[in-house]
Amino acid sequence: TQSGSTQGELEGIRGAGTWKSERVIASRQGPHLRLAGGGILNFCANNYLGLSSHPEVIRAGVWTLEQFGAGLSSVRFICGTQSIHKDLEEKISRFHQREDAILYASCFDANAGIFEALLTPEDAVLSDELNHASIIDGIRLCKANKYRYRHMDMQDLEAKLQDAQKHRLRLVATDGAFSMDGDIAPLKEICRLAEKYEALVFIDECHATGFLGPNGRGTDELLGVMDKVTIVNSTLGKALGGAAGGYTTGPKPLIDLLRQRSRPYLFSNSLPPAVVGCASKALDLLMESNAIAQSMAAKTQRFRSKMTAAGFTISGQDHPICPVMLGDARLAAVMADDMLSRGIYVIGFSYPVVPKGKARIRVQISAVHSDEDIDRCVEAFTEVGRKHGALP
Length: 392
Ligand code: PLP
Description:
Blueprint: H1 2-15, E1 32-35, E2 38-42, H2 55-68, H3 76-79, H4 83-96, E3 100-104, H5 107-118, E4 124-128, H6 133-141, E5 145-149, H7 154-163, E6 170-175, H8 187-196, E7 199-204, H9 219-222, E8 231-235, E9 246-250, H10 252-261, H11 263-266, H12 273-288, H13 291-310, E10 321-327, H14 329-341, E11 344-345, E12 347-349, E13 359-364, H15 371-387
Helix pairs in contact: 2-12, 4-12, 5-6, 5-10, 7-8, 13-15
The chain binds pyridoxal-5'-phosphate.
């Protein structure tokens, strides 16, 4: 029966050790959380800049809620576009130094809508094998010819670009920063190849917008290729206030086309005013000063260097995603549990989220962690690592 097979599938997920449960938080998002059992230090949110509970962001959300209502009960093109939506789109384009932008309910939607709207069966899309699930799903929905290149492997990308010369248009799609490893796509090299083989470049900046690069514009700013990357998709649900929402920013004709063709835009409700207000304020704060981003970078540096000195291997490149590499899945799970019992909230990742034998605990640093918070986390890791044999 259906319910028998569902039971079987659920048991399979449990048996594989990949069951995901929800921990219930009784407070705002932030470095210090309240759970039912008491307070803990949080090291697993995408709240890189601490703006999810920033007082000015909250005030802006409340003000916008009162002025513009709870929601639009409509998609954008029927009666769901307010001045605040247009203003936020303008602000996003300005932030990224692009011509135009289009909002979505999430970056998942932005990724789900873009490939089908832009690419035809005569075109080709070349995608990094470790791209986010939403890019993979978006590509599945389009009818273009699909190439998957090995993770950040430029030789493989070049070979596939050569093969794809037979198609009308080529689009290279990559995460700017990869969320499991904290590694950064070699965009200089990708853009060079894209020029050579007349391809467009698309980047997903969910784990970069607001804090990578001298002014927090993202991976393209960090690597000096803002004028070479054609399309940027990103989220409002991580560093930019953490509420929800996503967007595409790029050349105006392309954004115009998305407004005509992109299904998650055409067939899904417009972004709620409070969410728009929060994101808009987050962008204001970041455009005023990069002090918040710098503070996060300093804390990331503190964590990475102290953990490395303690004997741990932290993968990735100076990114606030700091994967503590452990190898063994059970070790990662047991250590994460033991960290929680010491009041530090971190999560272990194992297969199939990361390759077999590459289990890890992914720590994420935020601008609102204090130096003491970071040091407490390192101390707990050191104790727990010794106890379980991850450190000598
Ligand atoms: N792309 C990447 C790389 C992500 O990490 C995420 C979020 O997990 C998304 C897209 C989806 O973003 P959103 O939460 O706005 O749907």
